[in-house]
Amino acid sequence: MTIDSQNEGWRSWHDSSEPVRLGVSSCLLGELVRFDGGHKRDRFITDVLGPWVEWVPVCPEVELGMPTPRPTIHIEEDDRGEQLVSPSTGENFTDEMNVYSKRRVSELDAQGLDGYVLKKNSPSCGLARISVYRNGKRAHRRGRGLFAESLVVNSPLLPIEEEGRLNDPMLRESFIEQILCRNRWRLAVKRGLTRKRLIEFHTAHKLILHSHNESASRRLGRLVGEISQTPDKVLFARYELDFHMCLRTKMTRKRHTNVLHHAMGHLKNVLDSNAKHDLLTTIEDYRRGLLPLIVPLTLLKFSVNRHAVAYLRGQLYFDPHPKELMLRNHC
Ligand code: SF4
Q1: 61, 73, 2, 1: which is closest to 33 by C-alpha?
Q2: Could you tell me the pTM of the whole model?
């Protein structure tokens, strides 16, 4: 029997009634909404991630009423601040786009999203490094699309990424882990949180949180453990905020190595010296970049399974997302 069949990892924490729901720039799904009448279909998004999530496609420019194809627009900086304009027609879409974005983001929030994938380099959807012009010439590339800005400001806990950054294996794993963690949190809230359920939720996520930010993870542990006079509503709101913030810290090889050593500490009384040596060697090879994370993790999982270490068997760190995504085979 494998650890998967004993404790189904992420599957046992998810429910088809509340699918992982992601907002996405429509053009990334292959919809013909771009200014040139084309699309920017991203195969990882449609073919690999697609089967596991429910998409909520949004094209801010088309939803604002712009035709397809249409003249290009860009961000122009002047005395009024950043303006969304069409250089060829002189039209200014700033106010319309800001009003639309605020309303649309609020609708999306009410729908219950677990994350958002934005199209890079767009003056509407781009999250960072967007070209900003002054007097018709590019002044810098520190801008952000107007819709993306509204999303960041009005949905501060939502995991958001650009499709280009998802080509980085570590960022990809981190984003998908965040959206699944958020989905589990939303489901826990929907089912009705109690202090006991909060402790169970936190316990299952301990090693995941450690792999992002050990000190923030310990603070969360203290928050949950205190069981003080804090009203439930306040405690749950604080936990939600700190949980999401902790997950934002980038995972690194060093942090994963620490978690692997920490997990191994729970096996020290059951492993013989040969097994310990093999595990330590594999973790060290992972730390040096000679092996992907899946290798020491698989070895650890076998040991956890064989020796039935209850604490580790309950850790979502070992199965935080569908294995078919193969996220840990490349980082
Ligand atoms: S980047 Fe955004 S605004 Fe541009 S076509 Fe894609 S979805 Fe529409």
Answers
A1: 61
A2: 0.94
